Amino acid sequence: GACGFSAMWFLVSLSPVSNVFVQIGTVFAERYLYIPSIGLCIAAGSLFVIGVEQARKRAALRSLAAPVASAIAIGVLALATWGTMQGARAWYGSVSLWKNTLAHDPGNHIAHFNLGREYEEQALTEVDDEHRIALLKEAYGEYQAALDNPARTYRYDPARLYAAMALNQVHRENPEKALELLDEAAQHIDQPWRDERARNDVEALIANPRGLALSALGRHEEAVAAFEETLAKSDRYAGAHINLANQFTRQALKGEGIDESMLNKAKSHLEDYERARGRDALLVESWARTCLVEFDKRLELSGKGKEKSIPADLKPLLDKSRKLYAELISMRDNGAT
Questions:
Q1: Residue that terminates a domain, selected from 60, 91, 122
Q2: Does the residue 168 lie in any domain?
């Protein structure tokens, strides 16, 4: 009875992820066995109890039942403890987790991609230039490995992979290469499983790094159009607000005077970002930089840039920038990225 129940438990709990009733896009994964394995544990425990009870019914084995059962239990506990300690090593961090996955499954597309993203995120907060470049190269290598090992799922999505590779090239100051990769990404937008909303999301995903690459090449009007396309297509990439704010701030301050309308437009995008994402380190840094470059420009226009004292009307702007940088340092010290 217990074994039959356990077998039924295993099959029923595994059925939602079996791709028989609903196509979930992944053929197999270890996490799918967590709940079904409860049935296996019940079956093993039941067989153990039955074995002990049968031994107790036999006079010759009665005296051995307790010590043998205890020895088996201790052995199983020791083995499980050792296995848990070994398995826990892989969970030290995201990098170790994906490296462990690749050690057991070298051709795992998702693991290569996610390991690349981890390296990329580490690179963005790395202060040592040499180490940052090394991390970016490792990230690109993992993306390339992911490209060389297509996902074992019908929802394989090369467009997202090429977009990630393009953003990596932007971070490595290779905007021309980034644009080539984004053109390749655009060739993979249409997929039989991608609905209109998902299509808009991936188009936004491609447009945002395109804007960064165009901006790096000095094609600022095209960059603005790309960032605006990002926001028009999807609300998932709020970072485009900050990218637009940077573009509009540059335009507002590049002339002989200050385009107040353009500067206010830049600040409104920072406010839009805060409404969408909250007050994070990226926003605080953008506000601090905006206030500082605005202060520098207004000080230049005042003609008092060489004086020791700061004009009274500009001091609040400088103080605001200083407070923002102090807030940013505090956020970074507390682990914000």
A1: 91
A2: yes
